[in-house]
Amino acid sequence: MIAIWDRAEPLAHPFLSDEVRDQVRKDMRNIYLPNAENWVLESEGAPVGFIAMIGTEIGGLFLAPSEQGKGRGRHMVDHIVALKGPLTVEVFKDNKIGLPFYQRYGFVIIGEGVFDASGDETFKMAMPAS
Prior knowledge:
alpha+beta, 6-stranded mixed sheet, 4 helices, 36% helix
């Protein structure tokens, strides 16, 4: 999962400094992933993506760059929605991959926040209840 994150994260968050990225990588390994429910997506037996959940909040959704744009992210979210119902997520305002993905999926902005480690602004988003 960390190998996937290492390839995908800089594409989603090019605005983060190397210092912040290094700290988040350590936190992914030591805090975030061990405390989340994680699902790994495989293609031909190899891991190509994952979604990490904290309750009904998407804590992280990352796909190998070669797998992006193929509907695999939607497939992972669909799977979790079937299990948990409407979801929430917090995404960087400057995330040119994640923000449009969640908007296309139907998530709506319900608030704003700040990522403490970097000061970057975020959107809190939610799926409308059906």
